[in-house]
Amino acid sequence: MTTPFPIQEVAAQLAEQRRHWRDSHQRSQEPGGREFPSRDALAQTLGLLKGVLFPMRLGPHDLLQESEDFYVAHTLDAALHRLQTQIALELRYTQRSPAGTEEPAQALTRQFALALPGIRRLLDSDVQAAYEGDPAARTVDEVLLCYPGVLALIHHRIAHQLYVLQLPLLARIVAELAHSETGIDIHPGAQIGEGFFIDHGTGVVVGETAVIGRKVRIYQAVTLGAKRFVQTAQGHLQKGQPRHPIVEDGVVIYAGATILGRVTLGAGAVIGGNVWLTQSVAAGAHVTQASLQAAAQRPRNEPTLPAEEAAL
């Protein structure tokens, strides 16, 4: 079969580029077969896990309640076997060897399985917070089925458990599946307390070392990001350093607000829309663009915005 395209030439150049990349990363001697997890396989596994967590809402459309327990047990077994395969692939990728990964993969899968009831409890609190926090929500079922913030949190609660189990690649893939679908970018390392509500959600960014307390509510386009990146003497970025905000219990952050650096938003604080913050805020403070502008015009040595000066 003839073709008008330069297939052989392009294929040869691509092969050369692959060899160059592998040589530069000291990966010329790779073991045979796939050595890292599959995004598609994880997406299918997540579909099963969602049905396990919420069988009558996210499971099969024809599921009957009298069959619920059987469905959960059967689907959980299938999901965990698939997950174990992906965990083994990450271990193989990390260790650069296919040998000795099956037993630790099985142990990690078992730990993940035991965490699922706790994940369900957290998600119940998130769904309830969304229902109570949005006057447009008519039922908790509507929240679970329709709200992108809840979908992002389902992924995050699963991804965070994988992150805790030191499976960062799997965790990141799970997080990015939600990011691509919802526009909400939550790093799996972020620590998020119960009753978290993301309203609307598009454009929300939560960094790896962010710590979020209980019953926190944020709106679309909120960023909990890093202010600067610490570098080594060789000029490389240091990984894992605390660099994102701490958000204490009951904080509300309105649309478009950007909070950068390892600052603390005190319990019950309210951060207004489009505010840019790089310093801590006292508990109970109300911060707006106007209050920040007024504070900037007065000399101060205090690194934290106190409630009486940040109030609306």
Q: Could you explain how this protein is built, in words?
A:
It is a single chain. The protein is of the alpha/beta class and 312 residues long. The chain folds into two domains: 34-183, serine acetyltransferase, domain 1, CATH 1.10.3130.10; 203-312, Hexapeptide repeat proteins (UDP N-Acetylglucosamine Acyltransferase, domain 1), CATH 2.160.10. The protein is 47% helix and 11% strand. The chain contains ten helices and 16 strands. The protein has helices at residues 7-24, 39-53, 55-58, 68-95, 102-133, 140-146, 148-164, 168-182, 289-296, 307-310; strands at residues 185-186, 191-192, 197-198, 205-206, 211-212, 217-218, 223-225, 246-247, 252-253, 258-260, 264-265, 270-271, 276-277, 280-281, 286-287, 304-305. The strands form four sheets. Strands 1-4-7-10-13 form a five-stranded parallel β-sheet. It is globular and about 75 Å long.
